[in-house]
C-alpha cells in the first residue's frame, strides 16, 4: 500500500503514514462491526441451547438488535459515583477497549494481509494481552465500591494464574515453529502430519497444549465457566457495577474484541491460521482469509457453547486448575517437546 501512495507522488514518509492509518482502519472498523454482530450470534446460540428464540424483533431475524442496544446506551446518562476517582473511572473502559484492538496488529489474515509483520509478533501478543486486565483493575479501584474492588482483585489473580501457563504453552509452539513471527508459525504448520494436515493440533505432543490453551483462553477473557470477575450471584456485576451508558458499552466491546482475538490465536497457533485444513491443492483455491474467518467462527461457537452449558467454577477450583494442573503440565510439556526436538535433530 505504501508503494501505491508513492506512485501518486507522495514522499515515502507520508505514504507510509497514510498506508498505516488505512491498515488500522481496515482492521478496526470491520472488527467493531463484527463485535456488534457476534453479540447477536452469541445470544442466538444461548437461546437455541435453551430452546428459546433469542433476539428476533429489531430488523430481519433480529439482526439489528445489537445496534439498537448501542443506540440505547449512547442516549443514556453517564453516572459517575460521587466518591469515585473520576479520571481513572472514565479512562478504565477506554484502556480495555484500546488494548483489545492493539493486539490485532500482528494477526495474519492471509500470507500478506497483516498490519505489522514483525519478528516478535507472538511476544507482542503476549505482552498486549497481559495489559487488558489493567482496565478491570482501574475500574475496580476507581469505583470506590466493594463489589468492583473484589472483582478487580479476582481479575488480577486470574490473569496471573493463567498467563504463566499460556507462556509455557506458547514456548512449545515457538520451539516447534522455530520463530516468533506469526506468519512463520502459520507456515510451519503446512503439511505438518503425514504431509496432509495443516495444523499443530494434529501433533500428539501439541494437541494437549491446544486443549490447555483453549481453556486458558476462556479464563483470560473471563468467559464462563471462569467469569468470576462478574459473578452476578456474588458481585452484582463485578467491576462494571458502577458503570452506565457508553462506558459500560466500551467494556462489552473490549470483552468481545478479546474473545475474537483469542479465537484468532487458537486458529493461528494450532489450526493453521489462513491455511486450509488439509494440504490439498484444490483447497488453496479458496482465499486464505476465508479459511481464517471460518476457523474464528468455529471457535466463537465453542466459546458460546461452553458459556451456555458449563456451570461456573468456584474460585478455589479456578485457582487450583491454573496453579496445580496447567502450570506443572505445561512446564512438563516444554521439557518433553524440547527433548523430542533435540533427540530428532530438529535444532541441528
Mean pLDDT: 86
**Structural class category:** mainly alpha
Number of strands: 0
Count of helices? 13
Query: SSE order in H/E notation?
Result: HHHHHHHHHHHHH
Work out the strand percent.
under 5%
**Could you tell me the radius of gyration in angstroms?**
21 Å
Largest sheet: none
Uncertain spans: none
List the domain count as a whole number: 1
The end-to-end span amounts to 38 Å
Outline, from the CA principal axes? globular
Helix content: 55-70%
Pfam families: NADHdh (PF00146)
Transmembrane segments: 15-41, 88-107, 113-139, 160-180, 192-215, 256-276, 282-305, 325-343
EC number: 7.1.1.-
GO cellular component, one term: plasma membrane
Task: Kindly list the characteristics that best describe this protein.
348 residues, mainly alpha
Question: What does this molecule look like?
Answer:
This protein is mainly alpha-helical and 348 residues long. It has helices at residues 2-7, 12-49, 65-75, 86-102, 121-131, 133-142, 146-177, 182-187, 207-220, 232-235, 245-270, 288-309, 315-343. The protein is globular. The two termini are 38 Å apart. The relative contact order is 0.13.
Provide a quick synopsis of the model:
With 348 residues, the protein is mainly alpha-helical. Helix content is 65%, strand content 0%.
Topology:
Elements: H1 2-7, H2 12-49, H3 65-75, H4 86-102, H5 121-131, H6 133-142, H7 146-177, H8 182-187, H9 207-220, H10 232-235, H11 245-270, H12 288-309, H13 315-343
Helix pairs in contact: 2-11, 2-12, 3-11, 4-6, 4-11, 6-7, 7-9, 7-13, 9-11, 11-12
Amino acid at each position: 500500500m505504501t508503494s501505491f501512495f508513492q506512485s501518486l507522488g507522495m514522499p515515502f514518509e507520508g505514504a507510509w503514514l497514510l498506508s498505516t492509518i488505512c491498515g488500522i482502519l481496515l482492521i478496526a472498523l470491520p472488527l467493531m462491526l463484527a463485535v456488534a454482530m457476534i453479540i447477536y450470534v452469541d445470544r442466538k446460540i444461548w437461546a437455541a441451547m435453551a430452546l428459546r428464540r433469542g433476539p428476533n424483533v429489531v430488523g430481519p431475524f433480529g439482526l439489528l438488535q445489537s445496534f439498537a442496544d448501542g443506540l440505547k446506551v449512547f442516549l443514556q446518562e453517564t453516572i459517575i459515583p460521587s466518591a469515585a476517582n473520576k479520571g481513572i473511572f472514565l479512562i478504565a473502559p477506554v484502556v480495555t477497549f484500546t488494548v483489545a484492538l492493539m493486539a490485532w496488529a500482528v494477526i495474519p489474515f492471509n500470507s500478506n494481509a497483516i498490519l505489522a509483520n514483525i519478528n516478535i509478533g507472538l511476544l507482542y501478543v503476549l505482552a498486549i494481552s497481559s495489559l487488558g486486565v489493567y482496565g478491570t483493575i482501574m475500574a475496580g479501584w476507581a469505583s470506590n465500591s466493594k463489589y468492583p474492588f473484589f472483582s478487580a482483585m479476582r481479575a488480577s489473580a486470574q490473569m496471573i494464574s493463567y498467563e504463566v501457563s499460556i507462556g509455557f504453552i506458547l514456548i512449545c509452539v515457538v520451539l516447534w515453529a522455530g520463530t516468533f513471527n506469526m506468519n512463520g508459525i502459520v507456515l510451519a504448520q503446512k503439511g505438518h502430519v503425514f504431509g496432509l494436515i495443516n495444523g499443530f493440533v494434529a501433533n500428539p505432543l501439541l494437541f494437549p497444549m491446544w486443549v490447555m490453551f483453549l481453556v486458558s483462553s476462556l479464563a483470560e477473557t473471563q468467559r464462563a465457566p471462569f467469569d468470576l470477575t462478574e459473578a452476578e450471584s456474588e458481585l452484582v456485576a463485578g467491576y462494571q457495577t458502577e458503570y452506565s451508558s457508553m462506558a459500560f458499552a466500551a467494556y462489552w466491546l473490549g470483552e468481545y474484541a478479546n474473545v475474537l482475538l483469542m479465537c484468532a490465536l487458537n486458529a493461528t497457533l494450532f489450526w493453521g491460521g489462513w491455511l486450509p485444513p488439509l494440504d490439498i491443492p484444490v483447497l488453496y483455491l479458496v482465499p486464505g482469509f476465508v479459511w481464517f474467518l471460518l476457523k474464528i467462527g468455529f471457535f466463537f461457537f465453542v466459546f458460546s457453547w461452553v458459556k451456555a452449558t458449563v456451570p461456573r467454577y468456584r474460585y478455589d477450583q479456578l485457582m487450583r486448575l491454573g496453579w496445580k494442573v496447567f502450570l506443572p503440565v505445561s512446564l512438563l510439556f516444554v521439557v518433553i517437546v524440547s527433548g523430542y526436538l533435540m533427540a530428532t535433530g530438529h535444532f541441528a
